[in-house]
Design a protein that fits this description.
alpha+beta; Helix Hairpins; Immunoglobulin-like; 5-stranded mixed sheet; about 20% strand; binds copper (II) ion; respiratory chain; copper ion binding; membrane; cytochrome-c oxidase activity
Length: about 300
């Protein structure tokens, strides 16, 4: 008697858990499908419990978002069809309800269908996929160029058509962060670019392979020693956007973040003027530290 009651309550609990699971999964699916899932994802940086891609702040990332949603719809359709077929087989063709199985071996119509339909699905995926690849790889006419060099373990940036200054960008240690600065993403010198301008990035590395990745701009490109890779982005909203090195490059791979500040044209112009002075003045001690060039004055002072 007691056992029956315990079993009944166990079954009731199991049913409740299963129902909760189904409701939860359906909720997640609806969120992902309707795009409200993007609200749970930060733009420019990841957010706690993020379940979707980071928010888009460039035309390329917007296209990546719509391609992702399109694929999700197709995948859900395929999964539901396979699930329905499995349930049909389990219910209609088990030994009890179908004791004498048919000996059918071929059905031309079904065979043509299960060949042609997947081909059509793949073609339907290939067309927007190639369109997206061309958007990413076919560089439009650039308004400015930023050269990015990966080092173990920091990034350095150069503005060849804005005074050719360059600077290193190193992660800020957790203890030195200001209250609103994200941990492991904040850097001492941010890359600054103007809003709505097409920025060409030329990416290379000084030592090992790194990868320059900025999710909200839809950029991820390998930084290879001895090779110059190109990509582009057009930031559509002002703000700070973070990325990380995405190629295992050694001990401090996780500690070489990328921070790009998108500002108005006027703010960019005044930043360039400031940066030209600031980063020009650090060049001499930097080269001295490396010991490759010792200016005559410094040499005399040392003697
Ligand atoms: Cu790296």
């Amino acid at each position: 008697m007691g056992v029956t009651i315990a079993m009944k309550s166990w079954i009731r609990n199991a049913a409740r858990t299963a129902a909760g699971f189904i409701v939860g999964m359906t909720g997640l699916l609806v969120l992902a499908l309707t795009g409200t899932g993007a609200a749970l994802a930060g733009t420019g940086q990841p957010s706690p419990w993020q379940i979707n891609l980071q928010g888009a702040a460039s035309p390329v990332m917007e296209s990546i978002h719509s391609f992702h949603t399109f694929l999700l719809v197709i995948i859900i359709g395929v999964v539901l069809l396979v699930l329905a077929l499995l349930i049909l087989v389990i219910v209609r063709f088990n030994e009890k309800s179908n004791p004498v199985p048919s000996r059918t071996t071929h059905n031309t119509l079904i065979e043509v269908l299960w060949t042609v339909v997947p081909v059509l699905i793949l073609v339907a995926i290939a067309i927007p996929s190639f369109r997206l690849l061309f958007l990413e790889l076919d560089l439009p006419k650039a308004d400015l160029t930023v050269k990015v060099t990966g080092h173990q373990w920091y990034w350095s940036y150069e503005y060849p058509d804005n005074g050719a200054f360059s600077f290193d960008s190193l992660m800020v240690a957790t203890a030195d962060l200001k209250p609103d600065q994200p941990r492991l993403l904040t850097v001492d010198n941010e890359v600054v670019v103007p809003v709505n301008k097409i920025v060409r990035i030329q990416v290379t590395a000084a030592d090992v392979i790194h990868s320059f990745a900025l999710p909200s701009f839809g950029v991820k490109i390998d930084a290879l020693p001895g090779r110059l890779n190109e990509s582009w982005f057009q930031a559509t909203k002002e703000g700070v956007y973070y990325g990380q090195c995405s190629e295992l490059c050694g001990r401090d791979h996780a500690f070489m973040p990328i921070a790009i500040r998108v500002v108005s044209d006027a703010e960019f112009a005044s930043w360039v003027e400031k940066a030209k002075q600031e980063f020009a003045s650090v060049e001499t001690p930097e080269r001295l530290a490396q010991g490759d060039i010792v200016p005559a004055v410094a040499g005399a002072a040392a003697r």
